Amino acid sequence: MRHSLILLSCTVGALSACSASDATPHSTAIASADYAAFGPMDGARLGLGRTPDKTVLAAMDTDIDAKGTALPAGRGSAEDGKRLYAQQCAMCHAPDGRGMPPAFPRLLGRDPKAEGFVFAADPKLPHTIGNYWPYATTLFDYIKRAMPLTAPGSLTDAQVYALTAYLLAEDDVIPKGTTLDATSLRAVKMPYVDRFLWSDEVGASR
Amino acid sequence: MSTPDTSVTRRDLLVGAAGALGGAVLAGLPVSVDGQEAAAARPTVPADPTKLQGGVTTQVGTRSPFETPTRAPYGETVGNSLTPLQDLTGVITPSDLHFERHHAGIPAIDPERHTLTIHGLVDRPLTFTLDDLKRFPQVVRTYFIECSGNGRAAYRDPKPDMTPQKVSGMISTSEWTGVPLATLFREVGASPKAKWFLAEGGDACLMTRSVPIAKAYDDAMIVWAQNGEPLRPAQGYPMRLLLPGWEGNINVKWLRRLELGMAPWMTRWETSKYTDPRPDHKADMFTFVQQPKSIITAPGHPREVKGRGWHAVNGLAWSGKGKITRVEVSIDGGKSWSDAEILGEVRPKAAVRFQQMWEWKGQETILLSRATDETGAVQPTRTALIAKRGIGTDYHFNQIVGWKVERTGKVFFHGET
Fold first, then answer.
1. With CB atoms counted within 10 Å of each terminal CB, which end of chain B scores lower, N or C?
2. In what order do the strands lie in the sheet with B365-373?
3. Residue B105 C-alpha from the chain's centroid
């Protein structure tokens, strides 16, 4: 019974507070319908699963949210990032950062034609870090979890800070020569962050 | 006991030879482009199959050598392969033809070593094995999955030689078996404070997407089976997140971790990708729901309309918002519309097959289809969609599409609706 109450309060809480999904018009309501059919369980826990090993979980739990809450210690300079880029990134994203879209996106430099967030008018305008990405913390998260392609997850935190600094500096988001750490990365405001609207359906927030 | 007569021996040899030959012929076929059947030599079969014994039973079935549906393109690590819609009937997509979209290839995973950990704002963080998940009460549901980029090329740059596969091949429908996510959230004691959860895949990019928690208490599932057997590796073996009706990317494959939290994480995939630029110089994000959509798959380029008279025009319709309530077909380029028959059961967030009988009198015409769902949402024309969202919009293309039939019976894509 206690868990039924938790479930109910979760549902109500989520629906009232979560604008991004409460407008989903059709609910097939698996949860409630099928619980009713589960008979003898009557909402009980099954007691399955085991407590995760703290070390194993910590190794997996590397996600960095938009506030940069879990950014690790360490620091890296745009200069170091430039060297790393040549060694680790240029083979896919090209020495000049043009990339090979769509598999390997453009990473360096902003196209003046693509300023002002005019992407809806022309599909050829490149979405780049400086002219599109709303959060700088996302760069750290993604580089650390997925790059480089040939050895994902192999970069140290200092290297990830350095590459983040280099990419942001090359896109004129931060001054050239900047060194980033957790505090300074949290403080970076991306140029077009205010253009992003939360909508549960395309066009719905108009 | 009689001595085996020589004709039986010869028959056995023939059967064996035919099997081997069939395989060899298939393997030697030119690679098809967009699922178009190669015009190469037809497989060899006996002139009269009623006059000799047929092939033997096999461990794993194969298609008739005359049927060669293929996904296209293929061979990409960071890329996609599209379902050959023109080769399929009904609503279930054969598992080996389910479209693919991978961002770091298909990981090779040992199901005995793979686990799902749920943590964050929960009473009890827990790690589940696949065997653990299978002990929970299971549900079986039929849902489509559609890549939110499906139809991009046909929207931005429609070309006459586009096939149903090329136009809209990133939609597939399967019967899925799994456990409601709500069941697992109850098991870990999800906190009422949690508003979002992060889903993380076990591929080389550790795919991450943020999901509003209400979806977990609606119809979200963790699934491990597809069309009666374990998931295909390309569909997330051994387990994936299934968020019915929502864009493909968020149905995280090879799922290994769910973290409950207060706010979306703003991962690369929900910020720099999978956001929808708008004409007012803004962008919509978290646009999860796939809009109502349909496509006629027969006829469709390059197959010709063979012969005047009656033809069964048919295709697929689907909506991420719920049930399809109506599919209309126009046989005169949109001047008039009539309701098509919907074949079989209509299920929410699953494709339906529609059909309309059409008498072709040899004239040039355009065939179109238009879907409506239970929320009243209707497929717009391409012109209307461009006016509303711009030619550079990046995802969620649900414009009306169709086929131009020429007097010769040749069929070409008609995308400029």
1. N
2. B338-339, B324-330, B365-373, B402-405, B411-414
3. 18
Chain A partners within 8 Å of B193 (Cβ): 13
Beta-carbon count within 10 A of B85 CB: 28
> Which residue, A93, A73, A100, is CA-closest to A166?
A93
Using one digit for the tens of pLDDT, what is the confidence trace for B207-238?
999 999 999 999 999 999 999 999 999 999 99
CA atoms of B245 and B202, how far apart (whole Å): 23
pLDDT above 70 covers what percent of chain A? 77
State how far the Cα of B251 lies from the Cα of B266, in Å rounded to an integer. 16
Tell which phi-psi region holds residue A152, choosing left (phi > 0), alpha (psi between -120 and 50) or beta: beta
Which of B122, B222, B278, B319 has the most A C-beta neighbours within 10 Å, making it the best mutation to test the interface with A?
Answer: B278
pLDDT digits (tens, 9 = 90+) for B309-326: 999 999 999 999 999 999
* Residue A9: partners with Cβ closer than 8 Å, 6 or more residues away: B192
Q: How many CB pairs lie under 8 A apart between chains A and B? A: 271
ipTM of the complex: 0.87
Pair B204, B107: CB distance under 8 Å: yes
DSSP B215-255: GGGTT-EEEEEETTEEPPGGGTTT-EEE-TTB-GGGS-SSE
> pTM here?
0.88
Judged by CB atoms closer than 8 Å, whether chains meet at B349 and A195 is answered as: no
Tokens of A123: 């599909």
* Nearest-CB residue to B139 (from A30, A49, A121): A30
